[in-house]
Design a protein that fits this description.
Blueprint (H helix, E strand, L loop, with lengths): L2 H25 L13 H13 L6 H18 L4 H15 L3 H43 L14 E4 L4 E6 L2 E5 L15 E4 L2 E8 L5 E8 L6 E4 L10 E3 L1 H10 L5 E4 L1
Helix pairs in contact: 1-2, 1-3, 1-4, 3-4
GO cellular component, one term: extracellular region
Pathway: Cell wall biogenesis; peptidoglycan biosynthesis
Protein name: L,D-transpeptidase
């Protein structure tokens, strides 16, 4: 495509996008809206025009990133104008790179479906392991052979670090056994002793470790030790990792104040 064609595009398609983004700064330009200084009208206009002009000479992936940068800028200032800005910018993108939007939407759809299949497969495998563990536990309970180690009858959660086992108890009886678990690595061992649940955060992240996800967190110390969903094939920095079904079961059954015994 020639540069002349792109300039015609700027006049017929890109210019309204610039106007839309410029309108964002007009809407949010009140000085009391934020402590952060907003860009001037001229700066915002020039920046948006430059981004749209930059479609020319870019690869398809670079142009897609430019498009997303423009929409992010719009969302930052006035979300209600995003549909208008997106429509205009997408028209410009489609003109320069026909079929790119459909391609990226299809890639996103395929990625979502692959992730959903992988998640469903993981849940099915964990459910199967949990059911097998439950069957084994039931057999052991019937034969009164389940080894509770030194865990007291009034503990809600028991953890056998050396045996890499953890289970729930109800009224002194084993009520659930996690199919797997992992605990603290050498140098960052999970503490042993008697504790009590002090906090629960369902959608927790670890700020200490770059916002790593810690779903279904059940804290039992004031130093960040918790039971939570994570890969049980990997040792932790002190927490107790649980597979998905166990993490959900612990989350549903364990309450703040419940006793935790780790030995």
């Amino acid at each position: 495509m020639s540069k002349f064609s792109l300039r015609k595009l700027s006049a017929t398609v890109a210019a309204p996008a610039v106007a839309g983004v410029v309108a964002l700064s007009t809407t949010v330009g009140a000085p009391a809206a934020s402590a952060q200084q907003l860009p001037s009208l001229q700066q915002l206009s020039a920046h948006a025009q430059q981004q749209i002009d930059n479609f020319y000479g870019q690869t398809r992936d670079q142009a897609w990133q430019t498009r997303n940068d423009i929409l992010s800028q719009a969302e930052r200032y006035t979300p209600e104008l995003v549909p208008n800005v997106q429509s205009t910018v997408d028209s410009a993108l489609e003109f320069v790179f026909p079929g790119l939007i459909a391609q990226k939407n299809e890639e996103a759809r395929l990625a979502r479906e692959a992730a959903e299949r992988a998640h469903a497969h993981q849940i099915a495998e964990e459910k199967s392991r949990a059911e097998e563990a439950a069957r084994r536990a039931e057999d052991q309970r019937r034969a009164n052979q389940f080894d509770r180690g030194s865990c007291p009858a009034d503990a809600k959660i028991c953890v056998d670090l050396d045996g890499r086992r953890t289970w729930l108890q109800e009224s002194g009886e084993v009520s659930y056994i996690s199919p797997s678990m992992s605990a603290g690595m050498v140098g960052e061992e999970t503490p042993r002793g008697t504790f009590h649940v002090n906090r629960k955060v369902k959608d927790e992240v670890s700020r200490e470790f770059n916002n790593a996800p810690m779903p279904y967190s059940i804290y039992f110390t004031r130093n960040g030790h918790a039971f939570h969903l994570d890969d049980t094939n990997v040792d932790s920095n002190g927490c107790v990792h649980l597979p998905y079904n166990a993490a959900v079961r612990y989350w549903n059954d364990v309450q703040i104040g419940d006793k935790v015994y780790i030995y």
